[in-house]
């Protein structure tokens, strides 16, 4: 049995986070507060020896990962392994648009008004499906598209020959991804009306490729 300890950190605050814009595969830079927040979590993790580090190929994730690794004196890692598998949910036509308006358009045809309404009645997976339905180009990821991609990211980690039983692995993640992981692997355990903070820590165990949730939004 091989167990890997995953340290999932949400990227630092970005300008799109401030402007309440949908930020999936699109990207905006870290704010100064975002940089400072990344440095704070870097200090918390400075003594944790990481055998691997992974993040999406978006600037906000790469910058956050690099700040953490630059402050980590317990590891020999100099740069993260970037891959598209670790990206946030793809919002298709709604990338870069107002969050509240976008989810209203997705929820409206189903008699609802917001992402919160969808999740309370259904799930985060259903929210993905509703957004793809509302996308005039139908390019947004539904839950099948999303998990097929994200699962490849966890498989990439699980099958990395440089990682061994008991190793710690840094993973820079995203807000809706962390919520989706909790909804899928720890249903009902956490209050998911509270979004994970930028720079927060969520811990998972990857046991023979299977995910177990240890903590959320520390």
TrEMBL record:
GO molecular function, one term: fructose-2,6-bisphosphate 2-phosphatase activity
Origin: domain of life: Bacteria
Record GO biological process: negative regulation of glycolytic process; regulation of pentose-phosphate shunt
A Pfam match: His_Phos_1
InterPro entries per record: His_Pase_superF_clade-1, His_PPase_superfam, Phosphoglycerate_Mutase
Keywords carried by this UniProt record: Hydrolase
Active-site residues per Swiss-Prot or TrEMBL entry: 11 (tele-phosphohistidine intermediate), 88 (proton donor/acceptor)
Keyword Glycoprotein in annotation: no
A cellular component term, taken from the record's GO annotations: cytosol
Keyword Hydrolase attached: yes
Record: residues binding substrate: 10-17, 60, 88-91
Protein name: Phosphoglycerate mutase
